[in-house]
């Protein structure tokens, strides 16, 4: 796969270093030599018919620009350096980033793509092809087929997801939201079965919603025809939004957790956990609906404004 490196015009030192590296025909020849193979300095010097000292000088400039990597290797007469190309394509943006214009990175996660979980009966997973594993058997949540699940339920515990963090490393996230369709989990269904459902982001408790029930009195708009009547059918669409001044649930303030407290840019992923606290007043489990299930045709959506 191609290795692509991007520059912006306001990254003055990096762009100037790149320009210097590419301004010499000899250095361009070196990059062409390294297209397919890694070579030691002596091999490059021989192929170009120039002194090894001159070759080392040119390679140093290429290394400083981030275009090649040089590693010490044992040789017949001491050590030598193995040279490898680091970049396949370069892009220079001739405009700098406009910090007054907000951008958004978003990702949609299938409900079965959790990275860890703790569940207890009643529990299960369902895909468009039918049940995954065996209902009320916890081992089913560790089957590889779980990735296909569009609907899952458990009477307690949690599921945790790792969303890719595609925000550019030099940027700061001002707002993060996580949106999903969910409800409580009772045997069969019960419209008055309460559950305190909490969302944690990067290990931080971002607030709890008390779901009023497990909804099954009517068929869910998207539920497959083979899903039985008398079972959970749909949920409510809820969005936890973490801003600079706190966390909001469907627009209402619920927590003083601010976006700066989440340390979003420390890792290449954002960790999101959904579940019941062990000491919650209502440990009523939860149902999570993904695409083609429930009332809303979406998976779990993470969005970050920067």
Structural write-up:
This protein has 306 residues and is mainly beta. Helix content is 13%, strand content 38%. The protein has helices spanning 12-22, 25-33, 41-48, 52-64, and strands at residues 4-8, 39-40, 68-75, 78-85, 89-93, 104-109, 116-119, 123-127, 130-132, 151-154, 157-164, 175-183, 195-201, 204-211, 236-243, 246-249, 252-255, 269-275, 286-289, 300-305. Strand 16 and strand 17 form a beta hairpin. Helix 1 runs antiparallel to helix 4 and helix 3 (41-48) packs across helix 4.
In brief:
With 306 residues, the chain is mainly β. It has helices at residues 12-22, 25-33, 41-48, 52-64, and strands spanning 4-8, 39-40, 68-75, 78-85, 89-93, 104-109, 116-119, 123-127, 130-132, 151-154, 157-164, 175-183, 195-201, 204-211, 236-243, 246-249, 252-255, 269-275, 286-289, 300-305. 32% of the residues are buried.
Which structural class matches the secondary elements?
mainly beta
Name the helix and strand elements from N-terminus to C-terminus, one letter apiece: EHHEHHEEEEEEEEEEEEEEEEEE
Q: Strand tally, please?
A: 20
Mean pLDDT: 95
Number of helices: 4
DSSP strand content: 35-45%
Q: pLDDT below 50 for ≥5 consecutive residues: which ranges? A: none
Helix share bin: 10-25%
Q: Give the overall form.
A: elongated
Features:
single chain, 306 residues, mainly beta, ten-stranded antiparallel beta sheet, five-stranded antiparallel beta sheet, 4 helices, elongated
